[in-house]
TrEMBL record:
Keywords from the UniProt entry: Isomerase, tRNA processing
Protein family according to the UniProt entry: Belongs to the tRNA pseudouridine synthase TruA family.
Record's subunit section: Homodimer.
Pfam families on file: PseudoU_synth_1 (PF01416)
Gene name of this polypeptide: truA
Source organism, top-level taxon: Bacteria
Known EC number: 5.4.99.12
Domain Pseudouridine synthase I TruA alpha/beta: 15-110, 151-254
Catalytic activity: uridine(38/39/40) in tRNA = pseudouridine(38/39/40) in tRNA
Protein role: Formation of pseudouridine at positions 38, 39 and 40 in the anticodon stem and loop of transfer RNAs.
Protein name: tRNA pseudouridine synthase A
Gene Ontology biological-process entries: tRNA pseudouridine synthesis
Length: 256
């Protein structure tokens, strides 16, 4: 569309993507197959200027998003109502901008975020669903739902989640607050674990999901969750559930 110069603006995008074919959200030097890089390329093609996209958080390789939020600064005077459609015409089909709006100069997709919700999906039927194989973790053994729900409730509140984050975590503190953790069961044997918190550690939701699945399988008890929080030892908790079942569901900000 060419370069159109106007007043510098801070633009916020809500983005959905199928993360199957990407090496995560964050740009990497050795590949263009990241969500951030694809967004930055599309913005460059649209405006003719390079910009850096700031995400609300990093999603790992293979993880999806329904409501990832990003922001970037631009001098382009393209009307805000044209941004979503214009970018979608330039993005791969597995990345879609669902909303674009101008925000205040100090809005920062990550620092301004107040809470996030992730959803982890489990197919608990006997056979996998070939049409949903990219978005569901297939567990063919029947899961006990009541203990899983009880175990999730023990995660609510402020805790040290060392037992539920990767040993590769570089965060100075592993204390986070979970506002809600719940299990939603569909009639067809599909289960969703929803976790809402003020922040998440590396692999945190996937480790929570893997551990809760083990509770459902009878390999762990509900009380084991309380003990894991106290132990603060990743080696004592459950598996890291595969990335394809995880979706960054929604990001919340003060103005909302």
């Amino acid at each position: 569309m060419g370069k159109v110069i106007g007043m510098r603006r801070n633009i916020r995008l809500t983005v959905s993507y199928d993360g199957t074919d990407y090496q995560g959200f964050q740009a990497q030097s050795h590949t263009d197959q990241t969500i951030q890089t694809q967004l930055e390329h599309a913005i460059y093609r649209l405006t003719g200027t390079k910009t850096s996209v700031i995400g609300s958080g990093r999603t790992d390789a293979g993880v999806h998003a329904r409501g990832q939020v990003v922001n970037f600064y631009t001098d382009s005077s393209i009307p805000i109502e044209r941004w979503a459609l214009a970018l979608n015409s330039l993005l791969p089909k597995d990345i879609v901008v669902t909303e674009a709006k101008a925000v205040s100069e100090d809005f920062h997709a990550r620092k301004s975020a107040r809470k996030k919700t992730y959803r982890y999906t489990i197919n608990n039927r006997r056979f996998p669903d070939v049409l949903m194989r990219r978005y569901q973790y297939h567990v063919p053994v029947p899961l006990r739902l009541e203990p899983m729900e009880q175990a999730l409730q023990l995660l609510v509140g402020e805790h040290d989640f060392t037992s539920f984050c990767s040993a590769k975590s570089t965060q100075a503190s592993h204390v986070r607050t979970i506002y809600e953790a719940r299990l939603a069961a569909e009639e067809d044997g599909v289960l969703h674990i929803y976790v809402t918190g003020n922040g998440f550690l590396y692999n945190m939701v996937r480790i929570i999901a893997g551990t809760i699945i083990e509770v459902g399988l009878g390999k762990r008890t509900v009380e084991d969750i309380r003990r894991l929080l106290e132990l603060q030892d990743r080696t004592k908790s459950g598996i890291t559930a595969p990335p394809h079942g995880l979706v960054l569901w929604e990001v919340f900000y003060d103005e909302e």
